[in-house]
């Protein structure tokens, strides 16, 4: 199966999800390369330009939003089509922000593999996509912070609900929700870390230190 130029780059930090996407695409004959976060993705792209990027949003070191912003600011990578995939950032506001960064599609997890393959094939056969102008740094940082703050509030609520529920469940039902709780806590910590880093960066940016 031929594609326009280069492999498909999957950017995903959860190993089983990365493997699912990679196996699904390779089974259809697509060449695939992978990265575990946005920072690693940029390093891969510097050596091999992909035909398409499929990226998660919530990731360590550099998440999908920051990756997209970096790609759109660089004339060498600004035209690479990008699909966002997420289980966490799925509100209407999250999706609008993703598309404002130049995402051509947004797919929610869990992924329907048939729909996923159709989406990939459509994008690769449509030619160079018409993308919005890259956001100014100030607009990106403001929108990014709003998304992180909104997601942090959601995670606080989700954790509180799960903790209350665990107090009422019979022992045999608790393990599944304890796992859910731990995932939510891990997500909250990652979002808080990103928000702290972004706040510090914005303070420097506003002072003209960046």
From TrEMBL:
<feature type="modified residue" description="4-aspartylphosphate">
    <location>
        <position position="56"/>
    </location>
</feature>
<keyword id="KW-0597">Phosphoprotein</keyword>
<dbReference type="InterPro" id="IPR011006">
    <property type="entry name" value="CheY-like_superfamily"/>
</dbReference>
<dbReference type="GO" id="GO:0003677">
    <property type="term" value="F:DNA binding"/>
</dbReference>
<protein>
    <submittedName>
        <fullName>Response regulator containing CheY-like receiver, AAA-type ATPase, and DNA-binding domains</fullName>
    </submittedName>
</protein>
<dbReference type="GO" id="GO:0000160">
    <property type="term" value="P:phosphorelay signal transduction system"/>
</dbReference>
<dbReference type="Pfam" id="PF00072">
    <property type="entry name" value="Response_reg"/>
</dbReference>
<feature type="domain" description="Response regulatory">
    <location>
        <begin position="7"/>
        <end position="124"/>
    </location>
</feature>
<dbReference type="InterPro" id="IPR050595">
    <property type="entry name" value="Bact_response_regulator"/>
</dbReference>
<keyword id="KW-0238">DNA-binding</keyword>
<dbReference type="InterPro" id="IPR001789">
    <property type="entry name" value="Sig_transdc_resp-reg_receiver"/>
</dbReference>
